[in-house]
Amino acid sequence: MKYIGLLVIVALVSGCQAIGNAPACGLSHPRADELLSLSFEQFDQDFQGGWRAVAEQEGCEASAAELIGAYVHKNREKVPTGRLSTLKWHQGQLLAASGKNREAIKAFKATKPQGDDAQNYYADATIAFLRRDRAAFDQARAGLAALPPPKNWEKAAADFEKRFNRPRPVWPMNLDVVDRLGTCFDQPYSKAYAGHCANGAPPHTPPTAHKP
């Protein structure tokens, strides 16, 4: 499962104690301390390193979520302004992938800033998915789909492509993820996020919405 697209469970004593399934996930004391000492860019924005190096191992999503919680606890004052919500979102994704929906919803709720309709609709849709609330999900999806792009969107998308050497995102951001969740609405989050529907159900077509 590729997370890009964010509960401090771990006690910190001179770095950190054992995290989750530490031995199987490669989180020995020295390795955990090393990860917790990374800059925000290294810890969260490296698509091959940081917490992702832990999360991409089978069965290590919960350990990666705990690692993010420990990182926030240790480095809160060093995280760039506005990026704590990014870490919280990724933690929520990992908690949802490990089946801890209640904790995941709490994390997702912490990522809803005032004035960011795109993020708010995305969070609302994801929370509704975890609650199996189809009506709330469709409403959030419709709101996201109706949003006009911000004035600086093209430049921001081009900068993302250049910076990360990945395909530039399309507007509305994360609508493709929301549509996968809608198509696989009765599946676990990890399968739905990846678009792997076990029942082979056809895509759900939500009602057309008017711009709010």
From TrEMBL:
Residues 1-18 form the signal peptide. PROSITE patterns: PROKAR_LIPOPROTEIN (PS51257). Keywords: Signal. It comes from the Bacteria. The keyword Signal applies. This is Lipoprotein. It comes from Candidatus Phycosocius spiralis.
